[in-house]
Amino acid sequence: MPLISKEEYLTSLRQLGHRVFIQGRQVESVPDNPISGPGAMAMAETYYQAEHSPELFTARSHLTGEKINRFAHIQQSPEDIVKKVVMLREMGRRTACCFQRCAGMDAINSVYAVTYDIDAQYGTKYHERFKEFLKDIQSRDIVPAACMTDSKGDRSLSPSQQEDQDQYLHVVEETKDGVIVRGAKLHITGGVNSHELLVMPTRALRAEDRDYAIAFAVPAETKGVTFIYGRQPSDTRRLENRRPDVGNLYFGGCEALVVFNDVFVPTDRIFMKGEYPFAGRLVELFAANHRTSYGGCKVGVGDVLIGATAAIAEAQGTDQASHVKDKLAEMIHLNETLHGVALASAARGRQTPSGSFAVDQLLANVCKLNITRFPFEISRLAQDIAGGLMVTLPSIEDQEHPEIGEYVKKYMAGKAGVSSETRMRLLRLIENMTLGTGAVSYLTESIHGAGSPQAQKIMITRLADVATAKSCALSLCGLQTLV
Amino acid sequence: MPLISKEEYLTSLRQLGHRVFIQGRQVESVPDNPISGPGAMAMAETYYQAEHSPELFTARSHLTGEKINRFAHIQQSPEDIVKKVVMLREMGRRTACCFQRCAGMDAINSVYAVTYDIDAQYGTKYHERFKEFLKDIQSRDIVPAACMTDSKGDRSLSPSQQEDQDQYLHVVEETKDGVIVRGAKLHITGGVNSHELLVMPTRALRAEDRDYAIAFAVPAETKGVTFIYGRQPSDTRRLENRRPDVGNLYFGGCEALVVFNDVFVPTDRIFMKGEYPFAGRLVELFAANHRTSYGGCKVGVGDVLIGATAAIAEAQGTDQASHVKDKLAEMIHLNETLHGVALASAARGRQTPSGSFAVDQLLANVCKLNITRFPFEISRLAQDIAGGLMVTLPSIEDQEHPEIGEYVKKYMAGKAGVSSETRMRLLRLIENMTLGTGAVSYLTESIHGAGSPQAQKIMITRLADVATAKSCALSLCGLQTLV
Amino acid sequence: MPLISKEEYLTSLRQLGHRVFIQGRQVESVPDNPISGPGAMAMAETYYQAEHSPELFTARSHLTGEKINRFAHIQQSPEDIVKKVVMLREMGRRTACCFQRCAGMDAINSVYAVTYDIDAQYGTKYHERFKEFLKDIQSRDIVPAACMTDSKGDRSLSPSQQEDQDQYLHVVEETKDGVIVRGAKLHITGGVNSHELLVMPTRALRAEDRDYAIAFAVPAETKGVTFIYGRQPSDTRRLENRRPDVGNLYFGGCEALVVFNDVFVPTDRIFMKGEYPFAGRLVELFAANHRTSYGGCKVGVGDVLIGATAAIAEAQGTDQASHVKDKLAEMIHLNETLHGVALASAARGRQTPSGSFAVDQLLANVCKLNITRFPFEISRLAQDIAGGLMVTLPSIEDQEHPEIGEYVKKYMAGKAGVSSETRMRLLRLIENMTLGTGAVSYLTESIHGAGSPQAQKIMITRLADVATAKSCALSLCGLQTLV
Amino acid sequence: MPLISKEEYLTSLRQLGHRVFIQGRQVESVPDNPISGPGAMAMAETYYQAEHSPELFTARSHLTGEKINRFAHIQQSPEDIVKKVVMLREMGRRTACCFQRCAGMDAINSVYAVTYDIDAQYGTKYHERFKEFLKDIQSRDIVPAACMTDSKGDRSLSPSQQEDQDQYLHVVEETKDGVIVRGAKLHITGGVNSHELLVMPTRALRAEDRDYAIAFAVPAETKGVTFIYGRQPSDTRRLENRRPDVGNLYFGGCEALVVFNDVFVPTDRIFMKGEYPFAGRLVELFAANHRTSYGGCKVGVGDVLIGATAAIAEAQGTDQASHVKDKLAEMIHLNETLHGVALASAARGRQTPSGSFAVDQLLANVCKLNITRFPFEISRLAQDIAGGLMVTLPSIEDQEHPEIGEYVKKYMAGKAGVSSETRMRLLRLIENMTLGTGAVSYLTESIHGAGSPQAQKIMITRLADVATAKSCALSLCGLQTLV
């Protein structure tokens, strides 16, 4: 059965020979490094869940008929997409951070559909190649990281107009067996925890940008590939030996800058090369699939924040105040709104020519645009209920100090029976999610992950049927046409 | 086939002997009175659509197997609920107002499910009785109005505690063949355009309020029933002979106060009598079904407002301004958010013990709470784009005046080719929807229809799974319990 | 003493020979026409208050030393501007609508300052001329209407580029004694209740638009001037003999289209002619002064809406519900925010070269941009608390009907002691302010009066000191410059 | 002259023998400890500015006639309060954090006024005593920290009802020369950087809580006083030797838990003892004065965030995108709204019986309630414009690494001429302000500092004149009274 255990995954990651740097130092083992460990554990949780909650976390491969991790599955129905959204919410609840495996899942679904379309137009053989790659992913239960965003240089210029041609990843040389590429991909979620890198163009391209219309996969340990780990607020609290202060004891999201310095890609791992009219289409489809995912994962993270806030209110004896109840209801309302639109986008999914299913694109963009807003309000309400102590709290070492520890225990205790440490742990968790490493996942990534708000506004304008709306309006006031 | 035409419906309405008052005068024919006519025409449009768009507007009766109007259908699957939501959006687009038939539809679905539950508990025979009533509705293609909200008197007192016992409709006498009831139902949507009145309790009841736990149906022309038509902003513009000034040329919503002054209800039309524990359940189920409906109809009305706004921007030459494009995108975004949550509530619908399907109640309440907010912002943006002329515009009679008409035509014209009258018609439509009769449907009803915002907040708090959220949070910061 | 009574004002208006059309009919007496009467009464209230609250409503003329109506005063200090804002709030509370006299007040303050600047640059004599005009205004206690907005034709073209040159008011002929002008001014607040028309350009102009750089005053009854009264929602309720249904029993705002069809302007009433670089400056100064005014008048109207909402909550027995108290607090908070920024803009006013004082322009624009938003939210909350009955209420004639009147009285009564009519009157007032004639003043005019939101955003960007903010930021992260 | 230099201040702090703990370790010198140093530098900046911008940062003492730091001044006019607000904005711009000295300033102004009132009622001599204390503060140019918030234990119980009586600071013993107190004060802003502690009750008190009605001052180094420094997100980045990663290179806010373990207070430093009816009044006055201050300091911090955002947009070449310009205008608009209401609260200040001036309390609360909201939206917009790189950026050590440094420099550079380090510094500053130590000051403290949102809502409800508003409404719809 192509499902490996959490421990097997972590072992595979320890053995992966990829080149990772964190704050100027090369990392020996990603899961064992205190900074990057929690990120690996979040990814590992997707393996754990497949073992322990198989009904939601596994699916039947349409290629092999085998039971596979749902994160490696090609969606075969709207119900499959709904299950994805529900699964992502569950993962968000378990980890309270970005668990990183959905980007790859959404990428394989997008490349699967678009390679079919390219082949139909150009008579190429990308789709079969991709299916082979996919079978490998599924059968070994490994993680492909989605690599899309280029560094972009001067944003007012197209790829080929850049002074430094490498600002968009591109083919620098063609060889007999493949191509050599150069460039960098930014913000690569879970990159350091992935076995393969699935690279896609980052924008619509024109004929003169043909060399940038390249999609492919290479193993993470390929020569020329370097990962540079991104810093997060409070990241080095993980280096302290004071566990409660870290907030989220187990998990964290992570992103990296991935440099491709003259990397060789063999022909059988190339899924687009020069078919520039399909670059935009691939970007849009991936964006749509991924934007819907945010209505799963971020909602699950929101659940944790709501739960932590309800718990701290109880711990502090304010849970029966009418304004606290109202604010909690508002947090839930906003969170469920996010989820609702994602579910709708999933349930209204449509079949692609390749046979797989993709989300409703308009609703996917609507979902994501709300995601760029509501988590900030939910966080604000959480901080409102939690109280200012969240950011003025002594450290756990103060509590354990022989002289002053008693003061902390006495004056930081909550309502009857709630110890200062219980209160501190909950406040640190809320701090983590709204101002710490967790806030990267819950807030900033909610704005920019899967594309920034303006990208969603543009897609919403493009996808909405304003023409019909106009004609309804004209008709109701007795007009045929404007002019 | 149990489907009648729009004309047959209007004829039936003309022949209906119900007692209707508008502004102090009794009405002879509801569809022919200039004030109430547009309301009847909106209801009639549900007949027109069943004839012309049967795939969406009709369904197969699960009782008789016959093709019936979808508004008379008991939902047999989540897909049926999704179709309902889509149908309501389509109706909203066609009428730009409340078309009134969904309240009855949601009521029959709710009474259907709850009578089954009552019977299961008490061994009564309500469900079969109700099915008979329903067959009559379906086979004659007639409209039952949902009658729920009582006048309520002093809101701090329960029904039986009221000084005036009639502030909640109740049984005043039991006879051999039935009961006699007294009271009034407020805000009865489409009441004057309905053939039957389907009466339900308005709140959860306790043992001492047993006499108020009464649900039944009577024909609209029953002795003792009086309808008093509600006033709307700009309602009397319909009396003027200046059609464009009315904004929406054809349609309008309507509500009435329905008085039950010692009305006899025969036993075979009684669907609950004294089973007070089920009163709250019926209210909640109807509320949930109906709250989801708002994510259909109001979204369709929103489409018209978006269309009218896009059209007036074009007419005035501002459609390419970046802030106008951004505001239109925002209007669409908000409107689709409303729709998305409704679709999710539908798609996640679950089977009731009776076999029928009902919406996901949490999402239904979330849907409606957004409805109490977003249409106001959409309206504000529409007015922003439309410009102040919307409320300073001369009347159509000024334009047709021999002396000053030329001034109006000259100075009110839009960009090249757009006549002053075109501009006026569009502005009057937007005025209708944001400050006129249409605003009753689109704004105020969006707050209070199917229950006020606070009712949704209470349900959201009750239905959300905060306990699981709390336990996820505790676990992530290393706690078992609070105390 | 140059102060006339309310009655004298109304008499002067009756005697004014200006040409006014309402819905296709010429009006004999503006204050006596049922449609336009309430507008005249609102203006008349400024006379009433000067008599009864002279400490706030009068000032000492800096030209003559005489006690004058503050609406005719040139601001001599920040305190004068603060008093203006406070006076406008008081007027808003008294009338619950646009009382129209502030536009003229803000216009005379702006023309006063800018004519001084023009003279300083060009050696012209406009300022002295304008002082003469102003003395006349002050000594006769008459009203000048501010006439600014042109019809604008195609908005992508400048005045001189328009196909129809009259889309911006302009000089069509120069005579020995003055000039002849043609064009139209839209949305002229209180125009039909004013004795004089003070005309200004509507935008910044370039050399080729020199003929449009014209500012002047003419009496309202001047030959060639025609007023066409704008329609408002529910305007014809005033024609019914059912006073309570009208909502606001006494007052209303009004706007008109004012056509200048070859109107002669004598030289001594011309205040700008061809000095195009000052057109934009005049517009900006008037806009700033007027934008601050909105933080007075609309706040007073908001007070009435808050008061009506608090009263209906009490009448319906919901005033102690925590969510109602919270919503009322929010309404107050938003309303006071509007007022606060206006007061700040006034208190931070600065002296112009002419010696008069003008508001802080940045804060004036900030004030107005909030005005384009908060009244909509305040209205939504008012409707939330008021309940749906506001738009489903029978008419007063139903209550007085011999047969059904008792039903209305019984079922529409509020909590103990509150009659149905009391409840109806309050609900009709809220309806008036949020969906009726009052909503024109409170909502739509709050968006577009004194310039639309985008105009404020542009000014805010222009007036804010972002350069200093940038340099603070650079310095704190250790940078000198970006490049 | 009673003004000391920044260096003299820092020396005084080094010599202060107060007992401070940070993360379990006692601190030798607060300004020299890497964690607490930036906090001391922010406070020190108030000394620097008094020297370099004396016109704004100094005032004339009304007690001694000498030139003093404005932070030690008792407000003598509304203009004095306006200057305070402007000064605080300037300080916010200079430091981008909480500079801590305003709490003491607002406290001395409040105790000054209320001691006068207590004396008037009880014939006590607190006011003269306080003036002596104040002269000492002014003449030595030292900082008193405002100590108000108690630990509060079970919030549903009053102080004397607590199981642990020390949950509110109280008198435990009276001696011949003074009293002995016990308890703790939380969130004490700038406590560790202050020479004196000015202690006040935290809530309204009743007769049975008389022992808690205690106000006094003691030097920071008094026996029994312990400071425990609060943790902040990313606080330990200051321990790294990688300056740019810290974001704000120079400054930071700080709070501490201050424990009073049987601390002796001499009689001449007691300013309230047992006069419980004045406890609430002191709290309200301090709250009002301090709530207005937030419309100065946070606005200045907002300026820096706006400046940093404008700079990064320019650095990344997106500053001309219409949506970026719109978002920046919105950020400015929100920031200026905050400032406007504060200025209004100041300009409308009124004289207290003591002769000093205090803010308009209604506007002060309105100001602060906006502060609990807008900085979150400003931050969200800043993150939107900044881009996701803010949280995925490599560290400065990666850039300086011999092997991978070139990748960072190449792929992290901005538009032409903007180095990767410039971009990193700006992004780290925005990170600091929205997710790091600066976010404590700008976000969480904006909610809870000077009292939480609900406290403002309660005061707004209490202070607003709803009675007049109601009577205006009743009158306009023709009613005298409700019943």
Structure description:
The structure is a homotetramer of 483-residue chains. Chain A is of the alpha+beta class. Helices cover 49% and strands 14% of the residues of chain A. Chain A is built from 16 helices and 14 strands. Chain A has helices at 6-15, 37-52, 54-57, 78-95, 101-122, 126-140, 277-315, 322-347, 361-371, 374-386, 396-399, 405-411, 420-435, 437-448, 453-463, 466-476; strands spanning 20-22, 25-26, 58-60, 67-69, 144-147, 170-174, 178-189, 196-199, 214-219, 225-229, 255-266, 270-273, 350-351, 357-358. In chain A, the strands form four sheets. A six-stranded mixed beta sheet of chain A has the order 2-1-10-11-7-6, with no helix packed on it. Chain A has a four-stranded mixed beta sheet with strand order 5-8-9-12. A two-stranded antiparallel ribbon of chain A has the order 3-4. In chain A, helix 4 runs antiparallel to helix 8 (322-347). The longest helix of chain A is centred in the middle third of the chain and has 39 residues, at 277-315. Chain A is globular. The model of chain A has no long low-confidence stretch (mean pLDDT 97). Chains in contact: A-B, A-C, A-D, B-C, B-D, C-D.
